[in-house]
Structure formats: structure tokens, C-alpha cells
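PROTEIN–LIGAND DATA SHEET

This sheet pairs a single protein chain with one bound small molecule, magnesium ion, given as SMILES. Inputs appear in the order they were entered. The predicted three-dimensional arrangement of chain and ligand is reported afterwards as a C-alpha cell string under its own label.
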Amino acid sequence: MKGSRVLVVDDDAHIVEVMEMRLAAMGLEVTATGNPQEALRALDEQSFDAALFDLRMEPMNGLLLMEAAHGKQPRLPVIIMTAHGTIDNAVQAVQRGAFDYITKPFVTEELRGKLGRALSERRWARDRHLLRAVGDILGSSGTTDRILEAVAQATVEATEAQRAVVFLLEDGRLAALANAGSAATPVEALRSAAEAAVDKRAPTTVFGDDGRVTLAAPLLVEGGAAGALVVEGPARVTPTEDDLELLSLFSSQAAVALRSAHELARLRSGALAALGRMAAEVAHELRNPLGGLKLYARHLEERLTRAEDAQGAEIAQKISRAIDHLAELVTDITAFGRPPQLARESTPLNGLLEDCLALVEDRVNERQIHVVRELDRTLPAMALDPRQLRKVFLNLIVNGLDALEAGGTLAVRSRRVEPGVVEVAVEDTGCGMSEETRARIFDLFFTTKADGTGLGMGIARSVVELHDGTLEVESQPGCGTRVVVRLAIAEAS
Ligand SMILES: Nc1ncnc2c1ncn2[C@@H]1O[C@H](COP(=O)(O)OP(=O)(O)OP(=O)(O)O)[C@@H](O)[C@H]1O
Ligand SMILES: [Mg+2]
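PREDICTION REPORTED AS:
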């Protein structure tokens, strides 16, 4: 309790004087005033650990003052002082967010007890908030980026700072990777604070020329500093030991989150690679017997046709088609592990897109899908592997159709974005993807469809990357999906 900062406001000069003396005797740092406006100015200038406001004051009563104070310092515990006989008001005060009330004239012990609880409550409220925020971060199974965003956001919320920025070391340089809150100074200005914390490997306070104070705490992962969490406070608010302690507690939790994100990513990619290898092996084992089956089925079909068993022949044909489907799947799975060599040839990209759209025409008509084609007719023929790319665009278009309700819109656009680069965008107004789905679409066998194989997007990306292109996905649940493929215009040979 000693050294805590307490704000007292009462329009009775005598009470102000007495309170100042009593609280100072308890070892508290007291700011006492009879003027609510002055109190609000003090709240702008420094943070308080607790406040005592008189209920009846003119022109701003204690409850209004409390609301204004909470606008500036949301978790400030306020004790409302009332005279005898106004218990109803006191109860109302608690309902409106006061921590407690105390009736005048008060006994020193009661004052000490209530203030003591307010001060420990403040710590506790902060810690509880903090723990919840950190728990949310650790519980979220996101990418590193998302976790860092959450760290920055939670830090702003838990520390009442104006802005929090997470810096991470990348190639020996500190890069600002996540940012929450807002402040006028550029993010770059916080880099030196981050550097100081990383060098010292301990929490650091940096005082700016404009009176601003910046706190930085290193993110210690496996003994080294992986980066720093930097917090910028409002001007003229001097941080306490407590703030620094809170920040380093927070940054160590953030470091734990960061490390588990790294580990999770490593485990996940290891598991996916193992899954991929296994799938490729199984696919390989299936290939030969499937070839044999195909031969037998065709043989059977011929014999049944010769024997004029039309029904039997038709069944044999169905078997044959099912085998073709399985063989295609096997080829796809094998391709996933080891992408095929590209067979580039001069290919009109728009023609390829039209071919894909033609293949889904029946589905489009049946479900009254509105198709928008915006194809740049001036595109030159490009050196691409048309077989592989047909698979890519067909999958994007089919995925779009799968996502659409009847009557929705599917757009296929091609255009030149830079002199040497062509962009194809496949866009739907369908259901979009949750963040979880978005993070996993390229995973082998990840599908949300009853009859999906979950290979389409993974294959699409690997084919595009083999062409030295890029594939990007933008999607929001309920707002549709846009997949953008960029390909370089290579010399058609
Ligand atoms: N345009 C889209 N809108 C909404 N979700 C999509 C879209 N494209 C892909 N997805 C999601 O990504 C998942 C993976 O897509 P992917 O094409 O890899 O596999 P699939 O379509 O399920 O199966 P297939 O192997 O037959 O293509 C889909 O199951 C779906 O949940
Ligand atoms: Mg698909």
C-alpha cells in the first residue's frame, strides 16, 4: 500500500486537509483538491492507484467525476464519500461503477481497510485481465502473425498504454511485426527502445524529448532475446516499478506464446510432410494394381459386348470409369509429393480459362449462377503447361461454385498488372472461409466437403509455384473468396 498514488476530491476544504494528513500518515502519495476540473487535469498527467470522491459537489458531483475519471483511467478504483443518511446514493454509486463507498465522518481503520482493498483490487483486476488476455493468446491456434497481433492488442488493454508494438529480430534486424492502439509518433521511433531492451535483455525505460515515456521488455525465447514488446504511454505519465514489472510479466508470457507457435508450426509441418510421404507411398502401391484392373475391366467389357450382354457391358464400363477416377487421384497424390516436370508450350491463357468455364457450364446453368468474364483480349500466348494449369483453374472455379448458393456470382478475370506479369482472379460471392479453414486450405487432404479430397488447393499452389508464379487467397466468412494467380509472361517457345 505504501507509495501508492491516491487522488482525493472534496469541495469541503477542511475535509481535503484532514484526508491529506491521514493518508500521508499511511505512507500514501496524496493529491488532494477541492476542484473536480483540477482532479481531471491530474488524471491526464499521471496514473492513480485509487481515488476518493465526495458525492455531493457542485457543479460536478462525485458520480459524474467518477465517470469522467473512468474515461481517462478505466480501471481506477473509486471510493465515494457520503454523509450520513445517504445510503441509497451510496448503493447507486456502486451500481454505477464505484469500488466502494464510505460514510462521513469516517474512522481511520475503516478508511484504511477500504483503501487497502481498493489498492489490492486494482492489482488483482490488472492481473486478472492480463491472465485472461494471455490465456486467449495461448489458446488460439493461430499463425505467429495472429499471435503477435493478439499480444499487442492484449498489452494495450492490460496496461492502459496508448500503443503497443511487437518487434521481432529478422535477419539480425528488429522488424515491427504487430501493432495495436494508436499514437502520433511513427513506429520507427520505438525501434531504439526495442534495441535497448534486446541489448540489455531486461525491461528498459526510455524518456523522449517530448516528455513521452516508452517502456520496452525483451521477448526471451530459449535464453536469447527474440525481439521486444514496446509500450508507449500517454505524455507526462511516469511509469512505476509496478508498470515495468507488469510489462515484463507480459512479455515473458508473449515469449512463451511465440515459442509454442514456433513449435506448433514445426510439428505441423513435420506431420504434414509425414502424411504426404505416406500418401505418396500408398498411391504408388496402388498404381500397378489399378493398371491391371483397368485392363481386366476393359477386357470384360469387350467380352460382354461380344456376348451381346448389353447390361453387363455397361456395368463393366462403369467399373472402368471408376478405375479411371482412382487412377487420376493416385496421379494427383503422387504429384503432391513430387511435382511433375512442366511441359511448357505456347498457351493462350484466356482460351484455357474459357475451356474451364465450358466444363462447368451445366452446373452453372442448373444453379443459375451468374458468371462474369472479364478477360483481357490483348494477352499474348504464354509459355505455360496447359494440362497442369487447367487443373489449377478448374479447381478454383469448382471451389467457387461449391461455395455459391444458387443465384450467386462467379467472376473470372484476366489482366496484365505489370509489363511482364499477368493476373488471373477467380472470385465468388459465396460463403467465404473461417480463419481456421483459411489457414489450412493448402494442407494435404484438408476439406470441408463431404465428397472433397482436399487436394485441389495444394496442387494448385504447387503448380503455380513451379511456373514461378504466386497464388494468393483473400476470404472473409460470409463475404466470398478471391483467389489471385500471378504468372510471368515467359517467352513462348
Ligand atoms: N472459393 C472458396 N470458398 C470457400 N471455401 C473454399 C473456397 N476454396 C476452397 N475452400 C475451402 O478450402 C478447402 C480445400 O479446398 P481444396 O480445393 O483444396 O479441396 P476440396 O475442394 O475440398 O477438394 P478437391 O480436392 O476435390 O478440390 C475446401 O474444402 C473449402 O473448405
Ligand atoms: Mg477443390
